[in-house]
């Protein structure tokens, strides 16, 4: 059977492992060998839907879900795609070679991973000019346990619980081998110790989004006493921009937009003004802001809501001056800097209430992410 035939014959939902002798399995092996009390629940829609935000008092001791470190196998389960396209190109392969560890890397036994819009866009081929070669194991965000360390690694040892974004550059040559697998190899500089009060699913929800939120605020020159408007405040990045602006950067006033069902969530995260975009246009409000953080792709409207001399950052969509765009550079040092805020409960992860999704439900999770209706982050956990 050809690779294309093997791909097309597998269903896109509730996928099963391919046999170890399948062409796809062989192709991947060759390719990779070479190279809370209870959780505090904030209502996002009264009596019907909730977003889970973990408070400091509801921490789960790391030891209660510790992963037993055992001998590392030569092969593992991983989600892969050998061509660009929709969720139907995703296949679960049980015979992918466990990646080798370079001198500056650690091998992580993945416990949880999270999905990001960039994962979907990359899979769709929107960055193929700068992408790594196919086939690809997708996934940026990871939380798990170190099971092997390279010769130059200084800060981590076997058994350490870590989290991070496995790709330093989101679009420029991201790894062929990502986090949606049983094991992944990651440079030491991209990782940080997992916050002690967070479980693996919560930790996995953070890296790319919180690093994007933080770098965007820094690039905006945000400082104490300034006001900010966050567009798509209930999304993965937006929920963290609200919290970082208030708790880390000292915002004097935070406003954010969402649909009706998430207004209470915005307030619970620290928004002073929650704007229902289904009922009013934020750019028509008399109040203007020092900065606007556009996490949805509405820069043309965003520039109308900023004060004269203010700044607008846009993560996606067309950019209208004085707006600007950036692509985050992941750095474990940023996570280490923010860990005290996470461990104190000042900044909390927001995991979409429809999850976490199981490892077998990856196609379903991607389909849900691509509706653009997720609250916070879509998480995959546990990973066997």
Summary, kept brief:
The protein has 384 residues and is of the alpha/beta class. Helices cover 22% and strands 25% of the residues.
Write the layout of secondary structure elements.
Elements: H1 3-8, H2 23-34, E1 40-45, E2 49-53, E3 75-80, E4 91-97, E5 105-115, H3 117-123, E6 141-149, E7 161-165, E8 183-187, E9 191-193, H4 200-204, H5 207-219, E10 227-231, H6 236-247, E11 253-258, H7 263-269, E12 273-276, E13 289-294, H8 299-302, E14 306-314, E15 323-325, H9 332-343, E16 350-351, H10 362-369, E17 378-380
Parallel strand pairs: 10-11, 10-13, 11-12, 13-14, 14-15
Antiparallel strand pairs: 1-2, 2-16, 3-4, 5-6, 5-8, 5-17, 6-7, 7-9
Give an account of the 3D structure.
With 384 residues, the protein is α/β, with parallel strands linked by helices. The protein is 22% helix and 25% strand. Strands 5, 6, 7, 8, 9 and 17 form a six-stranded antiparallel sheet that branches. Strand 1 and strand 2 (49-53) form a beta hairpin. Helix 5 (207-219) crosses helix 6. Residues 1-50 and 54-64 have low confidence and may be disordered.
Coarse morphology: globular
Structural class: alpha/beta
- The beta-strand count equals 17
Order of helices and strands: HHEEEEEHEEEEHHEHEHEEHEEHEHE
Tell me what portion of residues adopts beta-strand conformation: 15-25%
Mean pLDDT: 86
Distance between the termini: 28 Å
Give start-end ranges of low-pLDDT stretches. Answer: 1-50, 54-64
**How much is the radius of gyration in Å?**
21 Å
Helix content, binned percent: 10-25%
Helix count from the secondary structure assignment? 10
How many strands, what sense, and barrel or not for the largest sheet? 6 strands, antiparallel
